[in-house]
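Just wondering, can you check both lines?
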Amino acid sequence: MKFLLEVTMDEGKLAQDPAGELGRILRYWGGNLRHYALEPGDGAPVHDSDYREVGSWRVTAS
């Protein structure tokens, strides 16, 4: 299996503070993953601190 995280970093908060926003996204989703089985097909949208959708994560089969 693979865990994939895709985040667009050239707009909004991510363009202004890429390290800070990406760090916040990783901390938030890292803590939230326990709510998922982490099987192929699992995933969710990812939002910045302005609650704008900036990407998604997903679990895929190899």
